[in-house]
Automatic annotation (TrEMBL):
<protein>
    <submittedName>
        <fullName>Uncharacterized protein</fullName>
    </submittedName>
</protein>
Amino acid sequence: MIGMGLETGHSAQAEPANAAQPIRILEATYGQRCGVTPGNATDEVARRCNGVQTCTYAVPTRLPIQSGATSQGACRGDFQATWQCGDDGIHVAALGASVSPGDVLILSCVPETGPGR
């Protein structure tokens, strides 16, 4: 046979150019608008999301916003995550000031190919 394109002894295949890369969390912050230090949730979100292609992150019941920075609880915290997919650009997703425990933020490195993309 001629022209089959198969080589014996090689099991690795090149990934398509649009293959999903794993998520790498760069920073995650709860309550930035309340005066907390940016990145206060980076370790937690990275533990849950690094290395996967899509991560559904539910805001935990106890938000790590220090009461001193929230004017005795008057500040309604927000949540923001920044991540990278391989060497691709930086992505940011956020939940606004009304974020509540159980709210979900979806982070993804799966390429969009459908309408509107």
